[in-house]
Amino acid sequence: MPATQRRILFKHIDEAGYTNDLACYLKNGGYAELRRALTLEPQFIKDEVKQSQLRGRGGAGFSCGVKWGFIDAKKTARPIYLICNADESEPGTFKDRQIIHQDPHQLIEGMTIACFANSVHLAYIYIRGEFPEGARILERAISEAKAKNFLGKNILGAGYDLEIYVHRGAGAYICGEETGLIESIEGKRPYPRIKPPYFPAVLGLYQCPTIVNNVETLCNVKHIVSMGGEAYAKIGTPNNTGTRLIGVSGDVQRPGCYEFECGALTLGELIYEVCGGIRNGNKLKAVIPGGSSSKILRADARFKLRDKEIGISDIPLDFDSFAAIGTMSGSGGVIVMDDTRDMVDCLANLSEFYAHESCGQCTPCREGSQWMKKIIHRMSSGVVRQEDTALLKSVADNIAGRTICAFGEACAWPVQSFIAAFREEFEAKVR
């Protein structure tokens, strides 16, 4: 039997009678951790977050505590900013939206504690343009929090000031990349910056030290303050601590958003037990494990993990296991495909998205994403040339690793992995 859900972030979501307003949040213990945090030393909170081993939940899985450690308020005369990345644009990913719509004060409380710990007095929530209702919910929640002195001047009499503003994007996927997001907030075209020197902790928003964290990451901060970093680190597995929000979509009986301890169940348990198996009695064909940019896994493939050979159903759901087999858990968006799916058509769908969303700054990505889209659509429609499969892979190979930001990999990896896993379907189009 698979592990049962351990709801920490989703503890109250979907409870009967639970609403997203402040009164309901307070009734369920809301802002208690903020009151406590304001009595602690900021460095103590930073140390607890580092001890918790919390990793970023936006895609890269970088240590939150280490990221915060790059900034030292005592060594800079410039203001420090914090940005919550709510630009959830990765196809197959929908977990942050759940928090924003159903429990926005959890985000604001976690964000406020993070700001206090890092001496931040001005913060932004950057939300994607396609979330108009989410933006309205956050604006209302911020107003409610300010009315009760959980935000604004002299918060809860502790002598700490903080303003949080919602900044709506215009619907560009590239703004999920932190430096492109920063450029967008500054009112510029969202071209990602070259790192170094424009590492946000050094030269971020308005050329000042800046922390960029994902929605789910910041929500975890309040729970780390509540239970302590050491206790939090005992949840999950070593280097993969805490819980993870997993959004499952595609060809399963029960798609949805679930919360489990990291590494507590396998991919097979998620698909067959939690989600009820493949719909319509079909068979599993492939899984994209971490949002559409992560490399696809073929259902009948075998993988080497920790000196063992395992199948797709035996892969633990954690950061390190997916990285070890050559893909990533990314944004937690699991896309399941059954044996009725044409892999060339599926890749054509993804390539259409990435070609549309390229910011155009780097030539390999700007030109190559369009070339890949044209080739794949030609193959999908049956107008195929003998060299198309090799040409398609060659274009992808010449994008990955040759662009300023990770968008190059995001559009190239699906092409590389689809061809590697299902080359026979591409060759069949040629034949």
Structural class, from secondary structure content? alpha/beta
Shape: globular
Q: What is the second-level CATH architecture of the largest domain? A: 3-Layer(aba) Sandwich
> What order do the strands of the largest sheet run in, or round the barrel if closed?
8-7-13-9-10
Helix content: 40-55%
Number of domains as seen in the coordinates: 3
Which fold does the CATH topology of the largest domain refer to? Rossmann fold
Stretches where pLDDT is under 50 for at least 5 consecutive residues are none
Task: Give me the count of strands.
Answer: 13
The biggest beta sheet, please?
5 strands, mixed
What is the C-level CATH assignment of the largest domain?
Alpha Beta
The radius of gyration computed from the alpha-carbon positions, rounded to a whole number of angstroms, is 22 Å
Q: H/E series, N to C?
A: HHHHEHHEHEHEHHEEEEHEEEEHEHHHHH
Number of helices: 17
CATH superfamily of the largest domain: NADH-ubiquinone oxidoreductase 51kDa subunit
Beta-strand content estimate: 5-15%
Keywords:
431 residues; alpha/beta; Rossmann fold; Ubiquitin-like (UB roll); de novo design (two linked rop proteins); 17 helices
Q: What does the model show?
A:
- There is one protein chain.
- This protein has 431 residues and is of the alpha/beta class.
- It folds into three domains: 213 residues, Rossmann fold, CATH 3.40.50; 97 residues, Ubiquitin-like (UB roll) (Roll), CATH 3.10.20.600; 88 residues, Up-down Bundle (de novo design (two linked rop proteins)).
- It contains 17 helices and 13 strands.
- The strands form four sheets. The chain has a five-stranded mixed β-sheet with strand order 8-7-13-9-10, with no helix packed on it. Strands 3-2-1-4 form a four-stranded parallel β-sheet, sandwiched between helices.
- The longest helix is centred in the last third of the chain and has 19 residues.
- The model has no long low-confidence stretch (mean pLDDT 94).
